[in-house]
Specification:
Pdz3 Domain; single chain; Thrombin, subunit H; 3 domains; about 400 residues
Length: about 400
């Protein structure tokens, strides 16, 4: 008997009893028993229906079963399916190199070898040993030796071929042929939100991989305080730190779409677009470059209003008096700046009494005839004054 039929039986029995009571008659025992039994059966059927409804089992309509864990879910194959970052690394890492700068004027007491003063990264762009990197990686110390370590651990002495200080690009060459070459992609069609992988040797840790997304494809140099540059930078949240400079920023096709350049703060890093690097490679002279600029031994970042705002959000204790200057990003060991007591994180606000609006102001001062520079520096919310004697730089 269906639930609907049982409910009808119960209603008929109850109606009969009600009619007898209204006419003044009395139901006999047998009628009460029959009616009560029908009511009980109907109520039980109705309760069963309600129970089945809450249990997702409605006996009148189609049956729907709740999901039940099987207890044996297999994850096999997911590593191969979803590890797209590892696939990029497998294809691209072999062409990434570690670059080490040795200062021939400083000898390590224990090893008797020139002291390592800086390091960076680069990547092979031609199988005959041509390597692309950042200019500040290879021109950071005068009278130094540039060493290149390949992924297999072999080490070679490199020769600096071309340097463009404006774009911060350089090429070096090692005497090896048949090397794996990094594929060069296109940065013109890059989109915000794309996954990218930064390869390099941050903090001298070889073959390090970080990943993130493209935050902006057209970050104007003026926003970074960089004057005289006719290119826009790629902004990413992939970690780019000391030693990662010069390494490739790679898309998911395994193509270099940028050259890691600088980090402002956690989650904000910048890369030089590969399309600009292609222009540099096409016009390079292939001859050693002679540099006559005086040398401080620091890497700087101009403080724009946007960067200052970001720094103050990260460090609320930063002095509100700072409205311009350059942030010292890196100090080369053994350099004039290092010997004079300049540290990473210092903010240079004035040089020789003149306000510093950007890195170009420092460069213009170095082109002058002054043998000493007097710098006003903000450190730990205190202003200090430091005198530096720049070195003459030559290669």
């Amino acid at each position: 008997m269906s639930v609907v039929t049982l409910r009808r039986v119960a209603r008929v029995g109850l109606r009969t009893v009600s009619q007898r009571a209204a006419s003044g008659g009395h139901a006999g025992p047998s009628e009460w028993k029959m009616t009560a039994g029908a009511a009980v059966v109907g109520a039980a059927a109705l309760g069963t229906a309600v129970y089945n409804l809450w249990g997702l089992q409605w006996s009148v309509g189609p049956s729907v079963q709740a999901a039940v864990p099987t207890g044996s879910t297999s994850l096999e194959g997911r590593r191969k399916m979803f590890n797209f970052i590892a696939d990029v690394v497998d294809q691209s890492a072999a062409s990434v190199v570690y670059i080490e700068i040795k200062d021939n004027r400083r000898i390590d007491y224990y090893s008797g070898q020139p002291t390592t003063v800086s390091n960076g990264s680069g990547f092979i762009v031609n199988e005959d040993g041509l390597i692309l990197t950042n200019a500040h990686v290879v021109v950071s110390t005068p009278k130094s030796t540039v060493l290149v370590r390949l992924q297999d651990g072999s080490m070679y002495t490199a020769k600096v071929e071309d340097v463009d200080l404006v774009s911060d690009l350089a090429t070096i060459r090692i005497p090896v042929k048949g090397l794996p070459v990094m594929k060069l992609g296109q940065s013109a069609d890059l989109r915000p939100g794309e996954w990218v992988v930064a390869l390099g040797s941050p903090l001298a840790l070889n073959n390090t991989v970080t990943a993130g997304v493209v935050s902006s494809t057209q970050r104007a140099p003026e926003e970074l305080g960089l004057q005289g540059r006719d290119m826009s930078y790629i902004q990413t949240d992939a970690a780019i730190t000391f030693g990662n400079s010069g390494g490739p920023l790679v898309n998911l096709d395994g193509e270099a779409i940028g050259i890691n350049s600088m980090k402002v703060t956690s989650g904000i890093s910048f890369a030089i677009p590969i399309d600009y690097a292609k222009q540099f490679l096409s016009r390079r002279l292939g001859k050693p470059t002679t540099l006559g600029r005086k040398y401080l031994g620091i890497t700087m970042l101009s403080l724009t209003p946007n960067i200052l705002k970001t720094l103050k959000q990260k460090n609320p204790k930063l002095s509100t008096e700072v409205s311009h200057g350059v942030l010292v990003w890196k100090v080369i060991i053994g350099s004039p700046a290092h010997g004079s007591g300049v540290y990473p994180g210092d903010i240079i606000t004035h040089v020789d009494g003149e306000p510093v609006k950007g890195a170009n102001d420092i460069y213009k001062t170095l082109e002058g005839d002054s043998k000493f520079l007097t710098m006003n520096i903000l450190r730990d919310n205190r202003f200090i004054e430091i005198k530096i004697k720049p070195d003459d730089q030559s290669y």
